[in-house]
Design brief:
Length: about 220
């Protein structure tokens, strides 16, 4: 499978969106995206990372798999040409446009535990993406639980693999208005945390809003 790392713009116009929602800094979004629909995520102000997961809508246990997705395309980065697949190999989402070209598959979601290890014990009570994920799935109690919070995609995030095999959270490169689009290949549950992190540059140390748009076929 060939992955393009060129910026690819969408032919869609936001005036044609059937639904739009602003995700404030530090909050989340969890809603279905039905087969044939397209989800656009826009980095409204620039340099604002967000954490992203997806599930088979009709079988939530079959969640996004970073391992399956990376192995299938033989590349740790995702862009236009990538299909996000589940643990069972089911195709959920295909990336059809990307004007940022800086998404990460390995860095994971911020959590109070990792914050304290990385940035000190005083960060223990700061809000994290894991908090947001937990709040979102609590709205679907009985269908989703902690075990479903698996390694995620970091959208608009620059976390590079360095020559010594370590990782570093770098300043983002997404400009205001950058966006990425996912077309649903099957009915999918989308889970997003608009990252509240203020201890590394993934949100420019000052988290801002994102906006989502949904388009029908
Ligand atoms: Zn985060």
């Amino acid at each position: 499978m060939s992955i393009s790392f060129e910026k690819v713009e969408s032919k869609r116009n936001i005036k044609d969106a059937i639904y739009t929602e602003v995700i404030p800094a530090g909050l989340g979004y969890m809603k279905p995206l039905y087969k044939g629909q397209t989800l656009r995520i826009e980095d409204t102000h620039g340099n604002q990372g967000l954490d992203f997961l997806c599930y088979d809508l009709h079988n939530p246990e079959d969640h996004y798999s970073s391992t399956q997705t990376i192995c299938r395309q033989k590349n740790i980065y995702i862009n236009v040409g990538t299909t996000l697949v589940t643990e069972s190999g089911k195709e959920l989402l295909k990336i059809t446009a990307d004007t940022c070209t800086c998404q990460d598959t390995l860095g994971g979601a911020c959590a109070c535990e990792s914050n304290t290890v990385r940035y000190g014990h005083h960060t223990l009570h700061m809000r994290t993406c894991r908090d947001t994920f937990l709040e979102c799935i609590s709205e679907f109690a009985g269908q989703y639980s902690k075990v479903d919070l698996v390694p995620n995609v970091n959208i608009f995030a620059q976390i590079l693999k360095l020559p010594d095999n370590t990782f570093e959270f770098l300043d983002g490169i997404s400009a205001p208005g950058s966006y990425i689009e996912f077309e649903a290949l099957n009915d999918t549950m989308i889970l997003i945390s608009n990252c509240p992190q203020i201890n590394n540059p993934c949100s420019g140390f000052a988290p801002t809003t994102n906006q989502i748009y949904i388009f029908d076929k």
